[in-house]
Amino acid sequence: MRAHVYVTLKTTVLDAQGQTIANALRRLHHPSVQDVRQGKYFLLTLDDSLAQDVARMEVERIAADVLTNPVIEEFTYRIE
Amino acid sequence: MRAHVYVTLKTTVLDAQGQTIANALRRLHHPSVQDVRQGKYFLLTLDDSLAQDVARMEVERIAADVLTNPVIEEFTYRIE
Fold this sequence. Notes:
Number of strands of chain A: 3
CATH architecture of chain A: 2-Layer Sandwich
Oligomer: homodimer
Number of helices of chain A: 2
């Protein structure tokens, strides 16, 4: 079982790195890009014997406690 | 229109950062996590007037030329 966790800066937090990429893309002739936000991506491989709801709780705890800084970041996840 | 681009190290490349996270999770009493791979996540906001296939080509070019180091990384993307 695999869990994909996406961690991004909260929308209220300035994403300087994303803005730098957006500016670079405009200079590199990609004018259709209006905005870029950069984040982190984690692919977790979980024990296949876990029940779906247990896996969900486990991933939420890991994402909230370890992978995300709750002051400035938020996360979404997907289990497959 | 928004494009999500996920950049990860190729599976043949050692992901030291991911392994460090996996080891930390085991020490933090998450034994169900077997493996972790870390990557980067980019959320691109594109001009809404772009046709779907043009947007797809644009995102592929940006991901391949700017966001990914083709020697050690690979990407996937999703447009919504």
